[in-house]
Amino acid sequence: MSTVRTAAAVVLAAVSAFALSACGPSEDGAADTGSTAPSAGATASGTPSKPAAPPKAPSSSAKPPASSASSAAPGSSASATGADYDVFPCSTYDVTFTANLAEPTTSSYLLKITNKSGKACRALGHPVVTFGALDGQATQRGEAPGIEDALRLEPGESAYAGLLGGAHDGTGKTVDSIALTMDTESDLEQKPLTASTPGLYVSPAVNSVTPWVDNAEDALSL
């Protein structure tokens, strides 16, 4: 009887041991398995990955693009146009004046001014001409250009105008001199320039003066 119990106990112990071994790995085995997992910083080959290289700083030799103001060529049309704004109308302080008889039968005279100053000026409109002691001034004949297109006189250059006294018709008077001032489109006071015109007949209905032009032929034919 005791022998049978002993044998049964041995068999039961063997079955229990087999059942325990079939339940899975031991706690030690589980810990060992976890310890062999690759670290987060390791590559697939087991070599730790390197951090990405920082971006390179811009080269100190790089030059900023030139500004449009500095790249503008000198002597451009803009600067030339700007320079014209500094050219003021000629006054009697800027010019010399002469009057020469061109046609005795019509008492026609060629008026000439020359820029004596050291800077350019513009001969605007018509000359302002008065006849000696006679009241009034010569009537304007022909259309003058605007101030933007007025004749520009560099130092030493001249402008011309034609003065017509008119034929002797018995209604006029004879004078021996004329006086001239310039149109400046301003209230600038000027000293009149005078010229001798012996025997100049002035008809009140016919006398006239042309605008300033750049040559004598046009001045007498307008």
UniProtKB/TrEMBL annotation:
<keyword id="KW-0732">Signal</keyword>
<protein>
    <recommendedName>
        <fullName>DUF4232 domain-containing protein</fullName>
    </recommendedName>
</protein>
<feature type="compositionally biased region" description="Low complexity">
    <location>
        <begin position="58"/>
        <end position="78"/>
    </location>
</feature>
<feature type="compositionally biased region" description="Low complexity">
    <location>
        <begin position="31"/>
        <end position="50"/>
    </location>
</feature>
<feature type="signal peptide">
    <location>
        <begin position="1"/>
        <end position="21"/>
    </location>
</feature>
<dbReference type="Pfam" id="PF14016">
    <property type="entry name" value="DUF4232"/>
</dbReference>
<feature type="region of interest" description="Disordered">
    <location>
        <begin position="25"/>
        <end position="78"/>
    </location>
</feature>
<dbReference type="InterPro" id="IPR025326">
    <property type="entry name" value="DUF4232"/>
</dbReference>
<feature type="domain" description="DUF4232">
    <location>
        <begin position="90"/>
        <end position="212"/>
    </location>
</feature>
